[in-house]
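hiii so my PI (J.) wants the whole complex modelled not just the main chain, which honestly fair. so below is everything: two entries, each one labled with what it is. i double checked the lines twice but i was tired so who knows lol
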Amino acid sequence: MRLETEINGKPVAAEVEPRTLLVEFLRDQCRLTGTHVGCDTSQCGACVVHLDGVAVKSCALLALQSQGRKVTTIEGLAEGGTLHPMQQAFHEHHALQCGFCTPGMIMSALDMVARHAGDLDEHTVREELEGNICRCTGYENIVRAILDAAETMRP
Amino acid sequence: MNKFDYACPTSLAETLGLLRERDEPMLLAGGQTLVPTMKQGLAAPDLLIDLNGVSELMELAVSDGGVRVGAMCRHAAVAASPVVRDNVPGLADLAAMIGDAQVRNRGTIGGSVANNDPAADYPAALLALDATIRTDRREIGADAFFVDLFETALEPDEMIRDVVFPSCRSCGYVKFRQPASRFAIVGVFVARHRHGVRVAVTGAGTAGVFRWTEAEAALDARFAGDAVAGLELDPEQMLSDIHAGGAYRANLVRVLTGRLVETLGADSRHPLA
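here's the output for the full assembly
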């Protein structure tokens, strides 16, 4: 079927099978491999992207469900060579160990900051990270980075 | 995943037409259960009807003496809704406890209720709040709706339009999670209606969600946490697995119900409606 969507600000048109998952479309057809497949059972959050600005697990969505909508992946955050403040905070706080969960963590963190409008505390961040699993268990610096970026991004 | 045809209708009428066109169609709501189930090959529709374009299923509004929640209202929307918060605060609290943030951004009340997973949260709210499930052809009271594990009173080609909750300002939900999956090992919803208390339990019963009528009677007589302390649930009627045996679940139901009643009794946010 014909899919017309927008990915990271650019219009994309492609033929996809109905059974193609959004994450498969992003990785295999668009070659946007920053979005990861961790568990493939929609628990780990490595595949989180934004659909119309809202964090979703792209392994539990069909590619066709992005029809006419806007998808943002980790590749769509930096502007040229300038990292997004959330990416910069992850860099500065060394909020990663193996890095596999990082793209999903960052996409979830942005959704979290948007929903809590500059009113995040450590407890809330930890609760909100329920859908993102870091198997290196490197949560300490992830939480620090999100809190720091939330301050930087405060309007 | 098996192959299937895909349709994305924009109206209820179009959806119902599609639903009667094929042998094995399925409705895709939030997809947080159905898509993983299809990936495992445990569901194989010949036509997948995506409801995400049917705006008439997404309304959330005050309705006579209560709140009407469209089948496609997402958990995040119910959790954040001032209308739900004002009229049925326990329902907003429950919606905020479902799954994780990403699941709440997609998952819907209609999908959860139609699936009737024995560990799902919403069925407990519908049952305790005495909600009405309105379909394309009739209204079904929650007591008659939840039949057995993953089984409801819905006909194969019937679909949920919305769920109507009567206002109930003194109500709440408490959940004891399985630490890894975060699903309810036991979830208890208590609602204090004008005509009496209703207590519904999810995660625990061998036939899925159920009303604990003995606790309701005890709480009607005296609304206090220790009113249920002497009651017994039959461990044989409780689910039993590697995470929690039947006797453990039976005890959890009693303990959680008592704690929730204490909270509701003390919480000034929950005056008796």
